[in-house]
Amino acid sequence: MNAPAPSPNKTVNTADLYDERGDELASVPLQFQSLGGRSHFSGPVRTIRCYQDNGLVKSTLATPGNGAVLVVDGGGSLGTALMGDMIAESAVANGWAGVVINGAIRDREAIAALDLGVKALGSNPRKSAKASAGEVDVDVVIDGVTFRAGVTVWCDPDGILVER
Hints:
The chain is of the alpha/beta class. Helix content is 18%, strand content 32%. The protein is built from four helices and eleven strands; from the N terminus they run H-E-E-E-H-E-H-E-H-E-E-E-E-E-E. It has helices at 14-21, 55-61, 85-93, 108-112; strands at residues 25-27, 33-34, 41-49, 69-73, 98-105, 117-123, 135-136, 140-142, 145-147, 152-156, 159-163. A hairpin with a 2-residue loop joins strand 10 (152-156) and strand 11. Residues 1-9 have low confidence and may be disordered.
């Protein structure tokens, strides 16, 4: 039986959470950078799979987030940014808790000033395509860990945990 997700107002440290729940949680071994203004964030997962095209990221973050975390599998590409400051500002305005990007962002100083959790592999000033190529709310696998729409994810400077 899964324990209830902690209140979004309570800071949860992933190390403590893993100590409590152990193998109920998967830990992402890939080393993401913490790039947003919110260091600790969690919520139900929404997913996108895309490659060097942020059209779906932009349109999804422009919808009500209701405290969710968008997990974007950009294939680990650092060739183009999948989110910049304007898309991140839209995420804040629409109530998203955070974004995890297996890829790059841009405008990292502006994003660091926003009340949004952001984990990404790095940054690149180059814009991505805008064709909206990709898939939404499909299972994505990042470094051997599966993210399914609706499960809870927790992120902090130590890493990323997701319900199995």
